[in-house]
Amino acid sequence: MIQSHSVRAALKLYDWLWRAATPLLCRNQRLQEGLSQRRGQPFPQGPFDIWIQAASAGESRLAAQILEQMGVHTPHRILVTTNTRQGKDTLDAAIKSVNPQATPTPWKSAYFPFDQPSRMKRAVESIQPRIMVLLETEIWPGLMEALKTAGIPIIIINARMRAKSLHHYRLWPTIWQALAPDRILAVSPEDADRYGRLYGAEHVSVMPNMKFDRIRSNAACGQPNPLEKWIPPDASFVVLGSIRKEEEDAVDRMIGYLLDRRPDILIGLFPRHMHRISAWQQRLKAAGIPCHMRSQLASAADAKSVILWDVFGELTEAYAHAASAFVGGTLAPLGGQNFLEPLTCGLVPTIGPSWTTFNWVGRDLFDKGLVRVADNWRQAADALLETMAVSPHREEVLIRLDSYLAERRGGTAIAVKAIEDLLREYQHAARRGCYC
Fold first, then answer.
1. Is residue 26 part of a domain?
2. Quick one: 361 and 417 in the same domain?
3. How many angstroms separate the CA atoms of 24 and 21, rounded?
4. Treating both helix axes as pointing N-terminal to C-terminal, what angle do 5-25 and 141-150 enclose, rounded to 10 degrees?
5. Domain containing 55 — which CATH number?
6. In terms of Cα–Cα distance, which of 179, 219, 130 is closest to 398?
């Protein structure tokens, strides 16, 4: 039970702000799907043994790993909520995958209610969770206050916290300490220290990042490649993957630089968003660079040109066939796109300096030479040329990658054990009348 007058006053203000904002949120086009569930009309009906909240697609993939690890024969009734359509699709696919026979399952997915404290109080009363599982950076004051008032244990799994976030939280530490989770499993000593400074070190331990469990060598990379017919056997195929609008000027320079230095180069250009295809057509035409649309190719493209990829779903096959690859979202402060994808094909990728979205992989991956980081487009282009000349064999890269991952896997099993341990503790305490 939360006793502090200042905390109660803060939560009342938070409730009022949600009450004022809700009519505006209800007009938001992105929130229209699942709006009734977001408003709690009605809330899912419990009791549920476990309630897992997975904010968006990334957290939903972690929740899916938990469901897969538990398996269809688990006795637990589980509710998994999310804030986004992509997250909901991920959860529904996971539930169907674990239970492919479409038999009745005690697992349900739903959209997460708006975090208004009074609304969350009704949600908790309806859902009746025995424990609450939050993922990564999920700190919802309305939900956590309702859970604490109801005596329901809270655990944060795969917990992360940036230094900037900790600074903001510590501007008013009283409220966060009043809402402290019962247990926090952080993905690094640094994250554990930040959570400990906010909630108290006694609540925090360290676990391997669950994301390492889903990195696997791509089996398709060892199979006959359907893209071979578009690429001459004597061409050096370079992939520029997931290129974002903000870095197009830099990548444009990179293309010209590469083609000037190697007449045998054929570049596969994959814009991150298909609506940028026409802009790239105009750029390449203005630069006098021959450009082939992937959808219009009838035979192998000529070297010293660009294949502009206007077809979905072929980036992995392109990485598997490439002599070198650059991964976008990294030459502008965008956090980076998925540079692990070419790596799982046995190809050492080159990226720019912005990769904060993937900082969970650790710097050791770079220190071991499995990813090359460039400060600018020219360094990136030079790194691509060097990789083409001295790149290790794909099987060697995969062996080194598997060795790196072997030391970091196992987070999902640890998370599931922590969840089940906390559930048992709750059940034992409830029988003794300790939770109320």
1. no
2. no
3. 5
4. 130
5. 3.40.50.11720
6. 219
Residue type, 158: N
Are the C-beta atoms of residues 158 and 214 closer than 8 Å to each other?
no
Predicted confidence band of residue 101 (pLDDT cuts 50, 70, 90): low
SS3 state at 410:
coil
- The structure's pTM equals 0.84
Ranking 224-228, 230-234, 269-273 by mean pLDDT, the lowest is: 224-228
pLDDT for res 5: 80
Would the pLDDT of 1 be above 60?
Answer: no
- Which residue range is the domain that position 111 belongs to? 34-208+412-432
Is 255 a member of any domain?
yes
Torsion angle of the four alpha carbons 382, 385, 389, 390, in this order, in degrees rounded to the nearest 10: 50
pLDDT score recorded for residue 320: 92
Give me the CATH number covering residue 227.
Answer: 3.40.50.2000
Residue 79 tokens, joined: 């509710």
| Strand extents, DSSP E, 250-340 | 265-271, 291-293, 305-308, 324-327
pLDDT at residue 49, as a whole number: 96
Indicate the pLDDT class of residue 6, thresholds 50, 70 and 90. confident
Q: In terms of domains, do 202 and 289 share one?
A: no
For residues 266 and 398, membership in a common domain is answered with yes
